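asparagine synthase (glutamine-hydrolyzing), pasting as requested.
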Amino acid sequence: MCRIAGIIDNRLQPEEIDLKVRAMCQVLQHGGPDDEGVFLDHSANLGFGHRRLSVIDLSSNGHQPMTDSAQKTCITFNGEIYNYQELKRDLLKRGAVFKSGTDTEVILSAYLHWGTAAFAKLRGMFAFALYDRNRRLTYLVRDTAGIKPLYYLACAGALSFASEVRAFSAAGITIEKDDNWPIRFLAYGHIPEPYTTLKDVFSLPKGHCLCWNNASSTYSITEYRKAPEKNQVSNIEEAQQIVRDALIKSISRQLIADASIGVFLSGGIDSSLITLLADQQNETELKIVSIFFNEKRYDEQSYQRLILNKLQGESFSHLVRQEDFEGSFPSIIDAMDMPTTDGINSWFISKYARKNGLKAVLSGIGADELFGGYPSFNRIRYMKYLRKIDPSVFSAITGLLPDRYKKLTFLASDHPLADQLLLRGLFPPGDIAQLLDIDTKHIRDTLFDSSPLPAMNLYNEEHASWLETNLYMQNQLLRDTDVMSMSQGLEVRVPFLDEDFTSAVAGIDPAIRFNAQQPKKLLIDSFNDLLPAEIWNRPKMGFTFPLQQWMMHHRDINNTEHYKGKTAKNIIKKFKNNKMHWSKIFALYQIQGHV
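Structure tokens follow.
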């Protein structure tokens, strides 16, 4: 797990490329504290940079950027390839020779043997740049679940890329802001892919490869792996066995590491299950990291203890208080890279995991999206009826609705993203217009542009799963988990998003994969001999902090004078009266310096 950066630019001298790549690496140092490397090819005006967090093969053999023995290819790689040992055995039979125990070298060898077909063989979380000197091509490749970020700027015949958006500004590549990012942020509570805060800096789509032609300075973006065909398993016992076998396999291979590895335990279904399974499979004692609060409404210690009492591993439990939040707040804001209303929880748990000597941890992200764990899986059925109403009705009632129902005005736009914004959006278009002093039409044009999306009007659990996976999880949970954990030099692995696991689950009939009465019933029943009933037979909590209370008492956040404009000040007053959710206030706090 690392941070990567690079530049290909015929307008720059090699010395300039070297300086800029090093500047990018410097600002990314937190994500790769163990080593730094830069590769330059003067003939191609190309520079690759790398900051290393060593987890597999901790020796200097893992130094990056890495080249093959014949110097035909070079790679700078961020992530983990969980099936690298299987691929390595296959490649050895084909005559490949290896000088390290790294998964990085396996990617290079796989490319030399199979070309771009190698990308589809990889199982893991990854973002890498690979330079083919003979063919004068450079590939940017991102994993199929979009776990690892990869941003790029391709304009004026040059290509730049990095693991974080801040690297482009730090190197002086571009500082021009995307004027529309505040609109997207206030609507979503994050900045959705492919957009960023910088103009023309985009996120590479998950499961895609950008191929840059070094000779012509042109590029194309293609999907490198086709979705597997669904078998539609409809037998419940068979489905449970599939889930059980696939998750055990996923966790087993994600425990592979040469550095210390542990688990996040919140006390919910997903983290409890991963912790119990990892404890069964880990050859050494597992380290378990958890958080608790003085605020009893949010404290899950009793559920955490239920799991910890079943384990042999070492546990670390940390109290997080109001004063910890306030003292860490500047560091949390700095870690974000781009504005978000999430990630505070990830920042704290990552900080403590690193403090407890861990370099990698397993997390339960992905189960809710796959098995129907969110309220949206039931709420989406109402969308079917709301969508039968003429959109002009929702336009007409703009300004007449109380705060609680204002998001209905998103449905004035007949666009698939409007459905998700109704279910999970932050501020409705009318409020955004007042906060930013922008015409509502411009806001709608920005939010509902021509970005291609699959036509979806099912309004069932499959529809909700697609929205939660590709929008909420992709744009917020995964991005925030990555940037917050890497700010602490920690790797977070997500077994529920293993390609083989998600493919296996996708082949199960939705009629048994989802259950309206019991969220995640299939997952629970698949491990009913392992997971205590007290863990799943209770209201869903989530990994939640007492942020409503903490932000209400934070002197800067709740200071009405900090906010500009009548609308913003009124929102803060409502928050002080506990009539507004903290996420809206957190968004306003971050936006004020940019409008």
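Note for the archive: The longest strand covers residues 73-81.
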